[in-house]
Amino acid sequence: MNNLLILPLLLPVVCALILVFTRKQSLISRILSIGTMLISTVISLALLIYVMKHGPVVLDFGGWRAPFGIQFVGDPLSLVLVTSSSVVVTLIIAYGFGRAEKRAIRYYLPSFILFLTAGVVGSFLTADLFNLYVMFEVMLLASFVLVTLGQSVEQLRAAIIYVVLNIIGSWLLLVGIGLLYKLTGTLNYALVAHRLSQMEDHQSTVIISMIFLVAFSSKAALVLFMWLPKAYSVLNTELAALFAALMTKVGAYALIRFFTLMFNDYTEITHKLLVFLACITMIIGAFGVIAYTDIKKVAAYQVILSIGFIILGLGTYTFSGVNGAIFYLINDIIVKTLLFFIIGSLIYLTGRRHYKYCHGLAKREPFFGVAFIIMIFAIGGVPPFSGFPGKVYIFKGAIENGNYIGLTLMIVTSLIAMYSLFRIYFVMYSGNDKKGDKVTFNRLQGYRKWLIGLLVAGVLAMGIAAPMIFKVTSQATHLNVDEGAYLKATNPHLLKEEKR
């Protein structure tokens, strides 16, 4: 079973290389890419079920045991995120590129999507600091290509900001890795966490944690959000959904992993700062969602807002808060894919990005009205939809830790998030179609509606099946928060060697 751990990363890479040679056969390329991601999803889910029954699985490359070799670890946290990511990438590739399908394949777009997916999956699975940096770079290099591929002036402008900020973040990440290696003498997550807990050099640990905080914040759009609205607003529906579902979530995952497993001894400094940054991010997101009439930018600021919710749960550093943050992170992968599918479809239907000019969708597309309402309730955290369970646990964690300002901001900004989307809904769906500019409605392919329907079903299922998902997130929380639990579960031989 351990050897299967490499497949969710290896399959997309192999398929991406094969697609280079099949780019002239669009149907074959489409079948190969969708089939590969379906297989990857099934393998990831099987590994997650196995891990829940038998504990984490560990793959030591080349037979070199940690701390000497590169190591992949499949624990509940990494595998639930790999599974969720594989699901949404499958749906995004199946959604396709419409009329631009042949051109997209000719430009190797599916290959770069799969390379980005491989980087994301590798970031979740690796248990080695330098390998995390490598996987981040694989993911970012693919994303740089995807952002600039349209060759429009807007894309190039957005790409400059995106590339510069992410290069700075990557440089800081590399500096942090070097300093942490100098301090602990190892790159393995489990051993780094153990050695940091034994150290008395508090100042060095806090300084290094701040470097990682800034580096990961630039990836997650935690306060450092400047790249996100511009980049997301110039991408087409499929790529915007891909970026919204995965890019910021990798940064959020890294913050959760590092600030529960490694930098957890000085919570009065590190985690209070996380709460503060989460509050600032929620405020930024709230202003963004009500400031624009461009529905793509409204959707982009919804992504920023949700990152604030996740990091607030982490910052409480209570079991409930971290548990809720992990649940909400999984939920957000699904919901933000749905959000950008719906927003992108509405833009395609109406040919407009500013909702105030579009009316009369209620009669023409009632399906999207229902999907839109369910999505709004999920984003707002209304029961029984998928956003509710995670937010309840984050609320509980904030109360337990006395973070009443963060709690209040989360409630207020959640209502603002719902208001901003209801505003779009009522104008586009309930508005008088005689007002505003005359709109010529396009027809959306039926299979795309089915894909949106699957995501809507997923949102409902996550809310109903929340107790089952909490079994996974609770085990993930225990493994990362409990002192020494991660080391005992993944590398018990290191613990014995450290005691000698």
UniProtKB/TrEMBL annotation:
Question: Where is this protein localized, as stated in its record?
Answer: Cell membrane; Membrane
Q: Tell me how this protein sits in the membrane.
A: Multi-pass membrane protein
- Describe the location of the NADH:quinone oxidoreductase/Mrp antiporter transmembrane domain by residue ranges: 128-416
Recorded hits in Pfam families, A to Z, give: Proton_antipo_M
> Which top-level group of life is the source organism from?
Bacteria
Q: Does the keyword ATP-binding apply?
A: no
The family note in this entry says: Belongs to the CPA3 antiporters (TC 2.A.63) subunit D family.
- Which keywords are on file for this protein? Antiport, Cell membrane, Ion transport, Membrane, Transmembrane, Transmembrane helix, Transport
Q: Where are the membrane-spanning stretches?
A: 6-22, 31-52, 72-95, 107-126, 132-149, 161-181, 206-227, 239-261, 273-292, 299-319, 325-347, 367-385, 405-429, 450-470
Q: What is the designated name of this protein?
A: Na+/H+ antiporter Mnh2 subunit D
